[in-house]
Amino acid sequence: MQNDFNEISKYWNERYSQKVKEYRKFEVSADFIRFASLFAPGNSYFYIVNLHNFNLEYVSATAKNFIAKDPEKITMQDLLQTVIPEEHQSISLKSRVNSHFYTSFVAKEEVLHYKNMFTYRLKDREGEIRTMLYQAFPLSVLENGTPEHVFCIHSDVSHLKVSSTNAVSFVHMNGGKSYYNVDISKGEFIAEATEDPGLDLAELLTEREKQIVKRFSRGLNAEQIAAEFNLSPHTIKTHRKNILRKSDCTNTTELVAKCLTNGIISPGLN
């Protein structure tokens, strides 16, 4: 386990820390904390990391719901240690794809416009396994194009019928090109490795289809959804078939995971 963490730390140092020559603290205001809280609904915690040395400059009080430690004393090592062993290789690959995207693919002018997202599993302070949605927003970027400070949110999505997947998404927050469900197997960002670089489910799915997906995410079956919408179970099953075809998914679990990282389903209760 320690070797896995050392490998991740070594890579982060090579890709980020060596490029962030000077330590500059991010000024965290009360207004920023209030604003940040709006992005972390439900059972979540957030922090700001300085990529010069991966020091956590601010950790929300809600982190104590996941880690048995004073939030002010939590380190990046503590966060990594919550990840279950089966996820270590995946986390390492996701980290590599993320860093390659921000430092080698996207233009410096665009870095602050992208957030990255993926799911993973952790073991919390009570020993319970939770599925988490990770979202990261660069807050500042250096002249060489390297992100300096990053705002990270970890949200518990265990209530959704979703599993951890071997993919990451890069979402442009100002209407630019997004990259959904990027394959991580190569350990670097490859635009062609997306299932469909232009696949935006928010545009492909109708409002009714989005409503149905949200109910599938809560564990409702076709009969229950049909009763809620006063439709026949056959109609709901037809919708499900069409949704799976549009999203290029093979089952509902995969569909919910993809909709989560496309922003159709929020981390909170839908």
From TrEMBL:
Originating species: Salinimicrobium oceani
Domain of life: Bacteria
Taxon lineage: Bacteria, Pseudomonadati, Bacteroidota, Flavobacteriia, Flavobacteriales
Listed PROSITE patterns: HTH_LUXR_1 (PS00622), HTH_LUXR_2 (PS50043)
SUPFAM superfamilies: C-terminal effector domain of the bipartite response regulators, PYP-like sensor domain (PAS domain)
Keywords: DNA-binding, Transcription, Transcription regulation
Domain HTH luxR-type span(s) in chain numbering: 198-263
Protein name: HTH luxR-type domain-containing protein
Xref: CDD domains: LuxR_C_like
InterPro entries attached to this UniProt entry: PAC, PAS-like_dom_sf, Sig_transdc_resp-reg_C-effctor, Tscrpt_reg_LuxR_C, WH-like_DNA-bd_sf
A Pfam family hit: GerE
